[in-house]
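HUMAN: I'm a chemist; might I ask for a sequence paired with its structure tokens?

ASSISTANT:
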Amino acid sequence: MSTILEVEDLRVAFPSRQGPVEVVRGVTFDLGRERLGIVGESGSGKSQTGRAILGLTPPSGTVRAKRLQFEGIDLRDASAATWRRLRGRRMSMVMQDPKFSLNPVMTIGRQIVEAYARQPDAPRSAARDKAIAMLEAVQIRDPARVFDAYPHELSGGMGQRAMIAMMLITEPDLLIADEPTSALDVTVQLEVLQILDELVRERGMGLIFISHDLRLVSSFCDRVLVMYAGRMVEEVRADRLHEARHPYTRGLLDCLPSLETDRRPLPTLQRDAAWAR
């Protein structure tokens, strides 16, 4: 399996009154043409890891790494021209909340066509048909109407599906999906996961799937990275997530509710200060 992305000792820091605070600390992994899940609580550094890989860390933050390469391209000091050539065409990210990621003064169709037009050989005459077909692929009813709609006219779930369509229309080599199915019902969630799965298997895309849902990640992904307080505490095969050994991962698994057993009170996670060191 060829390696698409190489990450070694990735660190992201932001200024504070007490000095720089590292929110991502020493994250290391390689990504092939596979589905890699990243799990952990809110604030564990999952999203900041994804943003740093795509060069989307806010200007106030600093990103350092011993190695950060995408198919041989060093991303640590990539120029603006290099990022324009990569983002949208070969690397994309599905953001968590469509309310803040979609342009409120542009129609959905115009935003998807704009993404499609970033491909060097994309025929403009086919842009509308391609966009509508992608909206239909993510299970949006009446895609022609949604194509002409503005973001405020869509529900949260429809907005999220439109954003997924926008990121997938360029068929990128690397997709970072930050909670892409959190606002979707179970039926549509399965359809979207099927689309992502086909892109990985048939086109050879690399997928980083960021989620809080351990059950979903264990059934959909190939490998899982577990993050706590900005650090990677464990890496495990997804189908063996239930065999994880780190006490933090065990604690997350133990906190999952079960329909088969009556667990009252639901266990709470007992933290150890050593996990964050």
Notes: DSSP finds ten helices and eleven strands in the chain.
